[in-house]
Amino acid sequence: MYLAEVKAWDIVKKQYRYKLKSYFGVFTSLIVIQLLAILFSFNGTGSGSGSSNSIQYDFYYYTSDIILIFMMIWAFITAIIITTRAYRYDDFSFVTNRTISQVSNILFLLSASIFAGITVYLSTHLFQILAFYFKDNYSIIVDSLSFTEFVMGMITSILYIFLFACAGYLVGILIQLHKGFLLIIPTILFGGLILDGVGGDPELFVNITRFFGEETSFILFICKIALVSSILLLASLGISNRMEVRK
Amino acid sequence: MNVVVCHDLTKQYGRSKAIQNMNCRIAENKITGLIGRNGAGKTTLLKIIAGYLHHSAGDIQVFSENPFNNLKVSANTIFIDNEMSFSQGLTLKELLETAESFYPNWNHDLALKLFDYFSFNPTQYHGNLSKGMKSTFNMIVGLAARCPLTIMDEPTSGMDSATRKDFYRALLKEYIAYPRTIILSSHLLDEVEDLLEEVLLIKSGEKCLHLPIDQLKEYAIGVRGKTVNVEKWTEKMEPISMQEIGANMSYAVIRNDRSLQELEDARQLGLEITPVSAEDICSYLTSKTKGGIDHVFSRG
Questions:
Q1: What separation in angstroms does the CA of B49 have from each of B79, B150, B204?
Q2: Which among A11, A189, A197, B48 has most CB atoms closer than 10 A?
Q3: pLDDT digits (tens, 9 = 90+) for A16-37
Q4: What pTM, to 2 d.p., does this model score?
Q5: Interface with chain A: mutation pick from B2, B74, B96, B107, highest number of A CBs within 10 Å
Q6: Rounded to the nearest 10 degrees, what angle do helices A98-134 and A8-22 cross at?
């Protein structure tokens, strides 16, 4: 009897294709959440008003911020879901080993993030059009983007979503390693935030946001995200290698 | 060539040992039955062979490699049990197509024919199948994959008797058409004994016997007669099992290695000598106490 010799990369591709097909529900939830986000954004994501002698005006911003934040949360949760036992065991009904399983998961999360990033952009337009038709607006100013700005904006959204997916993946793997993390992680996260803010001058959360948000160089921003995501993913890979394959 | 070689294999869960100091070799292209009582460590051993669990001590080689988390072993092995998990997002038909893309020897024609024969609905999902239907579907995947090492852990659980018979027949036909190493675990030896070539009997995580099925069938004999006589005759032997079967009557099971003279003596004492079926041999060998379940209820 001859033994089949398989190449790891071939199996990664097969697992990835299998995941795109079988995790289709993830994309359904993406659309539902975006519709919800559009609903939430409908009143404008920011507003203000002003007046002078004879004029009084109100203005509303319609941006994709809320949709992007919803997508980041979606990516975080999706990543946790695909680390759960049912999803992990699905891989092992077919040919795989742990590294391949993880790499194909990461590729899946990356593609899901790209898809989400593109749809964030598209749904922004959808709800701007909806706002145009259904709200009593007197004038609308649309900030038109140049092609490079548009591409940069999209890549930024994708990277933010992917960053959250990586964080979710690590959290998911930790929970799979030991159920205790289900308690420990929220405690550390929220406890840390509360302790940080208790003095009235929160720093931790602000600094993390600044680390990414105030980066003016696009290349450096990409590097920062890439660095943090790789740390998160390598940690996940390392931890998952301590677990049994299937019980 | 041996497909599986275990040397002093031990698997520990916390303090309890599920497998201890197991030494065995499973030969290529044979159907081996893994027989044992509940909790004897059958599933643990099979999962270690399939590369799902890490062994604690000793050594195991599958296709001359350590199976744990090994891609080559994964590609050439299929592990079928009733906990097999398939994606909820794919229909049964799509699952078969996915399996086809993963297993190089996959016989899609056979898979579809079996699929039709057992009247599966191609648009159904694996999670919605009944227990017996799940086992049947898993069995189809296991047979069609034509993996050099096919491991089936209690494959017939939940199947009705007609499906069981069909399954054993399908397994045998597939094996003849495309020989491969098959390890079949079961606690119903009666059902599978016509299929098996070798039997690996395990008891509380240890190897108890590893014999060709023909030798196992002749492994022991049963002696029935008056308790006094049975005890007298088996005095110098070590009976595998001894139980009372009514007033002053006893039944003992002993190794089938007595001389003709001794058997003649037995006849003189009025003892009746009977063959013991392979299934009974296994249950006597693996029972924890010599008296059997009757011992629990005896008012002694």
A1: 9, 11, 18
A2: B48
A3: 999 999 998 899 999 999 988 8
A4: 0.87
A5: B74
A6: 40
